[in-house]
Amino acid sequence: MVVPEKTKKSTEVFDGHIMKVFKDEIFLGEKTAFREVVRHKGATAILAIDKNGEAFFVEQFRYPVDSPVFEAPAGKIDPGEIPLECAKRELLEECGVTAEKWTELGPMFSSPGFCDEVIHLFLAENLSESAPDPDEDEFLDIKKLPLKEVLEEVRKGKIPDAKTQILVLRVCDLLGIK
Question: Which position among 5, 136, 138, 153 bears the catalytic label?
Answer without folding.
Answer: 136
